[in-house]
């Protein structure tokens, strides 16, 4: 059994936090396949933050960027940007990625 511990920072206390397993390499080396990311549903994401989003029914970790005044999700490896909107919504901001212990 795997055990992970995350101690929230003072400003994160009282927020809804949960963890997701990272699958894929589109954000490497910033976020590594197989790591666990802690997601804060209550944090306000800004440009450059890694966010968890639901895109066409699938959970994805991407980087939030503002392009021509509109929010988009991007990767580090050249995949096309995804517009945040009808088929894509941000669930929360990734706080950190944890290693297995």
Question: What percent of the residues sit in helical stretches (DSSP H or I)?
Answer: under 10%
Mean pLDDT: 90
Let me know the largest β-sheet.
7 strands, antiparallel
CATH homologous superfamily caption? Umud Fragment, subunit A
Counting DSSP H or I runs of 4 or more residues, the number of helices is 0
- The rough form would be described as globular
Oligomer: single chain
Number of domains: 1
| Percentage beta strand | 35-45%
Distance between the termini: 10 Å
CATH names the topology as Umud Fragment, subunit A
**Rg:** 14 Å
Q: Provide the spatial order of strands within the biggest beta sheet.
A: 1-2-7-3-4-5-6
- What structural category arises from helix and sheet content? mainly beta
- The CATH architecture designation is Ribbon
CATH class: Mainly Beta
| H-E order | EEEEEEE
The tally of beta strands, per DSSP, is 7
């Amino acid at each position: 059994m795997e055990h992970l511990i995350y101690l929230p920072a003072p400003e994160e206390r009282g927020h809804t936090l949960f963890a997701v397993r990272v699958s894929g390499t589109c954000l490497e080396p910033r976020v590594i396949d197989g790591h666990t990311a802690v997601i804060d549903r209550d944090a306000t994401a800004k440009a450059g933050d890694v966010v968890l989003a639901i895109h066409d029914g699938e959970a994805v970790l991407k980087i939030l960027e503002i392009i021509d005044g509109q929010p988009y999700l991007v990767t580090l490896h050249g995949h096309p940007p995804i517009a945040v909107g009808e088929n894509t919504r941000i669930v929360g901001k990734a706080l950190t990625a944890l290693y297995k212990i």
